[in-house]
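Chapter review. Work through the record for LysR family transcriptional regulator before attempting the end-of-chapter questions.
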Amino acid sequence: MRRVHFDLDVLRSFATGVELGSFAKAADRLGRSTSAVSAQLKKLEDQAGTALLRKSGRGMALTEAGEVMLAYARRLLELNDEAVSAVRGVQLEGRVRLGLQEDFGESVLPEVLGRFKRAHPRLRVEVHIARNAALMQSLHAGRLDLALAWETEWHTQPMQHIRSMPMRWIGSDSGLLPFETGEPLPLVVLEAPCLMRTAAIDALDRAGLAWRIAFTSASLAGTWAAVKAGLGISVRTPFGLPADLHALDSAILPTLPKLGLALYRSEAEPAPAVARLAELILQQLEAE
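Structure tokens for LysR family transcriptional regulator:
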């Protein structure tokens, strides 16, 4: 049986097109023509011996074989990029100071730091978990090289917008909305200043709904514990949401705005180690 060797460039076009939801966008990002990317996809399907994409409305969707191929493509590309980084960056030394919120500690940090450590064993990463305002202050003061934070009015630092994330009302199965009794809505919030706390209060005030602060916490872990206990509901994005909590779907609760997520840098032209860590963070968030 003839061995098949998948082309990594072809796999990258395939994975990028799926992630962006458009192969035209993938062609633009990769610096190729749309016709070249289409030819690559045909080559990949010929090598696979089966269709990887099917028509879905006006767009395309993955077939079952396409889903399997995408999983392997991501693994192969990750290993390739890690090998390139390791060979080119073997001499990198020093430290990188990264700041982020608790939301991303469990879902982003372990994978990113593991890949970074394998590729750059001589580099030291210092991680600071803090609230959004504290992260921006530390970045502005030069105490951080990178900060994964919510977008605010702070635009003095170089930043890259990652995505807009919806804010949602978060509750537990035991947390019942108290509107039937006419009592104010109990809120579980972080200590002020807090972007999501402000968004929740503003939305309730505009809707004319009564509310009260039922629980205040200095940490996200404390917030989740209070919501799980049924002390009230909170506001957060779906990112990093504990499995036993869920977004509430209620016609009574007002719609909340979206919140921008960005990667901030202390320098417009960061050091190679900082740039590499930033690249890994962006790759991980794209895969989420």
